[in-house]
Amino acid sequence: MKITKRYIGAFVALLLSMPAFAQVPAPAAKQSKPMLLKGATLHVGNGTVVENAAVGFDNGKITYAGPVSGASSLSNYEVVDVTGQHIYPGLIQPNASLGLNEVESVRATIDWREVGDFNPHVRSVVAYNTDSDIIPTVRANGVLMTQVAPIGGTIAGSSSIVQLDAWNWEDAIVKADEGIHLNWPYMLIQTGGTVNPRLASMGARRQETLNELELLLRDAAVYKNRKHDSENLKLAAMTGLFDGSKKLYIHTNSGKEIIESVNFVKERGVKDVVIVGAREALAVVDFLKANNISVIYSGVHALPARAEEDVDMPYKTPYLLQKAGIPFALDYDLSIHGIRNLPFIAGTAAAHGLDKEQALAAVSLNTAKILGVDKQVGSVEVGKDATLVVSTGDLLDMRTNNVTKAFIQGRDVDLNTKQRVLYEKFDGKYKAQAKPLAN
To answer: What is the DSSP letter of 187?
Structure first.
């Protein structure tokens, strides 16, 4: 019994002595008084840059954004001097499993897909974990919002837009269940004169999937226009696709698949389509423009889609999409742990043709427009949420990016991370141990 008590006591002592860096920072308190950021260079997000600017916000909403000279009437605002720094809108990561996946090698921490191939009724946001250790690392680089999206199957489920400073998923929601995600079946191409039995079998399964998808879309369209004694969750979740209140995000990269998928769903009444991935979007520019299709481009830091393409084609694709007049946003899709690098893929695009403010818009206002939240966020404009970041250097440049402040809906967000605490811990240790070199 004595040994048991001793071990219990030791275990309790261990828990109480765990370092602070093991905890995710608590969400910030609601804004209690008006605040004015003064003296910085303001990057509005819509292409406008204001030198020696001021940004005022109260009750979580922006009340002023412009030259310092125009803010003289805001005398009751608490002034924060950010002279020499830069103010940007909070960046937005689309198409992410952030909060749904913590450690990829530990199955118990992964909740990004449901069993089955057709799950339009599955709501990814209810599994969103606001206590994820990854979220603070993302905020520290200026990414303050994300689209929580499901993965897997043909219809993976619905996505929601969340802000990254909340106690629970209900508090985090900015726009719930705004779209449904469809993973388009790969198009199989038979080459040569000999029939490949394996390809033929895969082609038959693909056709079965398309037949099931067609039946589901037709049933949902009929369900929308009839009264029912009981609700069919799958069909009810899809009704918004036929009046444009929900978007259909089609995940595909091939030019042929883009044309096939868009034609398929539009012929069956789907109103608002966004292509996610879109590695070969440049091959079907005219089709995208004719059908008013927006693109979430996922390949900036990827290899070229085809062997014959320029080695820097992924880097300059955003510029070529901009030049062609295709509405687009950028998506860091390589890893949830790498979402913190979202500003830097925009920086890469800026180094390969895009104007710097256009690159900023590709991870802020453009994304907000595509996701349908541009009236709330995406740019630093009066009336919008005070969701913004302050950096001593260029936010899009990994050499100078240094976020000193972040505000989400006016709340002053804690930018501490595990990495930062560990750095300071061991930096202090080795500085204390350093000895002067002998003469």
So the answer is: P
Distance CA(110)–CA(125), nearest Å, equals: 14
* Adjacent-strand bridge partners of 297: 277, 330
Half-sphere exposure of 326 (CA within 13 A, CB side): 29
Q: Taking 80 as the threshold, does the pLDDT of residue 334 lie above it?
A: no
pLDDT tens digits, one per residue of 204-248:
888 999 999 999 999 999 998 888 778 899 999 999 999 999 999
Cα gap 233→212, rounded to integer Å: 17
Q: Say what the pTM is.
A: 0.90
Cβ atoms of 104 and 110 closer than 8 Å: yes
Q: Which of 186, 190, 213 is nearest to 200 (CA)?
A: 190
**Spatial distance between the Cα atoms of 155 and 242, rounded to a whole number of angstroms:** 16
Q: Domains of the chain by range and CATH? A: 19-90+378-432 (2.30.40.10), 103-374 (3.20.20.140)
Of the candidates 162, 166, 140, 154, the one whose C-alpha atom is nearest the C-alpha of residue 211 is 154
**What number is the average pLDDT over the span 170-175?**
96
At 417, list the tokens: 């991370």
* pLDDT score of 423: 84
**In the predicted structure, residue 421 carries a pLDDT above the cut 90:** no
DSSP state of 25: P
Q: Give the pair of three-digit tokens for residue 371.
A: 């996701």
Distance CA 314, CA 333 (A): 13
Provide Rg for the chain, Cα atoms. 24
Amino acid at 35: M
pLDDT for 5 equals 55
Amino acid at 243: D
Alpha helices in 173-270 (DSSP H): 197-224, 233-238, 255-266
* Cα(427)–Cα(420) distance, integer angstroms: 10
Integer Cα distance of 56 and 71 in angstroms: 8
Rounded to whole angstroms, what are the CA distances from 10 to 5, 13, 22, 126?
9, 5, 19, 37
